[in-house]
Amino acid sequence: MDFTFNETQLMIRDMARKFAQEELAPTADERDEREEFPHEAVKKMGELGFMGMMVSEQWGGAGLDTIAYVLAMEEISKVDASAGVIMSVNNSLVCWGLETFGTDDQKDRYLRDLASGKKLGAFCLSEPEAGSDATNQRTTAVKDGDGYLLNGTKNWITNGANADVYLVIATTDRS
Ligand SMILES: Cc1cc2nc3c(=O)[nH]c(=O)nc-3n(C[C@H](O)[C@H](O)[C@H](O)COP(=O)(O)OP(=O)(O)OC[C@H]3O[C@@H](n4cnc5c(N)ncnc54)[C@H](O)[C@@H]3O)c2cc1C
């Protein structure tokens, strides 16, 4: 088995390293101290293709493999853990789920903009009583006309106050 990185993977790693060192490092401490969301940095990460790295090009993503994604995550996270988790949630928890399980209509409406960084996603699973024990969900979804009425409490949601699209885990039948 060949464990060497290919040219594309190395190019992505170097691009992420340059971005992290030039754009994130100078303000990372100050933003942490002030608890500021890195709006500008996230916008640039979208422009560079870091927000939908494994999403196929058909849906507006970069169409890269997992290795390239992990290399970019490493470079960004080691300089700015907040930017890293914002990026990982959008990529792994929101875009991946939508591309894998969503309908074409949902992909058209949400995935394109999420993968190209025009919009930001949040993944709402954790609840006060449902962390590691994720199946202990209390949030309910009740059919209401064309949509669902959601009721419940979520916490620890990365991008929670700043997202455009929220992927919410809820149950339609507690039994
Ligand atoms: C930086 C960050 C970002 C996050 N972003 C998101 C997000 O975007 N969306 C989202 O939904 N959630 C998010 N979370 C929440 C995260 O998923 C939960 O914190 C996690 O699932 C753990 O749940 P908990 O905090 O309730 O801890 P608990 O489940 O209460 O666990 C507390 C401790 O008990 C241990 N423990 C739990 N169950 C057992 C067991 N059966 N046996 C032995 N030990 C056990 C755990 O290992 C842990 O040490 C985020 C958390 C962090 C820290």
Description of the molecule:
The chain is mainly α. The protein is 48% helix and 10% strand. The mean pLDDT is 96. The structure holds flavin-adenine dinucleotide. Flavin-adenine dinucleotide binds at residues 85, 89, 123-126, 131-133, 156-158.
Question: How are the SSEs ordered, and which strands pair?
Answer:
Layout: H1 7-34, H2 39-47, H3 66-79, H4 81-101, H5 104-115, E1 121-124, E2 140-144, E3 147-151, E4 165-168
The structure holds flavin-adenine dinucleotide.
In short:
The protein is mainly alpha-helical. It has 5 helices and 4 strands, in the order αααααββββ.
Helix and strand composition category: mainly alpha
Strand content: 5-15%
Largest beta sheet: what is the strand line-up?
Answer: 1-4
> What is the helix fraction of residues, given as a range?
40-55%
**Poorly predicted ranges:** none
CATH level-two architecture of the largest domain: Orthogonal Bundle
The biggest beta sheet is recorded as:
2 strands, parallel
The CATH superfamily of the largest domain is identified as Acyl-CoA dehydrogenase/oxidase, N-terminal domain
Shape: globular
Rg from alpha-carbon coordinates = 17 Å
Task: Figure out the total of helices.
Answer: 5
Give the overall pLDDT as a whole number: 96
What compounds are bound to the protein? flavin-adenine dinucleotide
Give the termini distance in whole angstroms.
Answer: 47 Å
Structure summary, number of beta strands: 4
Can you tell me the CATH class of the largest domain? Mainly Alpha
Order of helices and strands: HHHHHEEEE
Overall domain count: 2
| CATH fold assignment of the largest domain | Butyryl-Coa Dehydrogenase, subunit A, domain 1
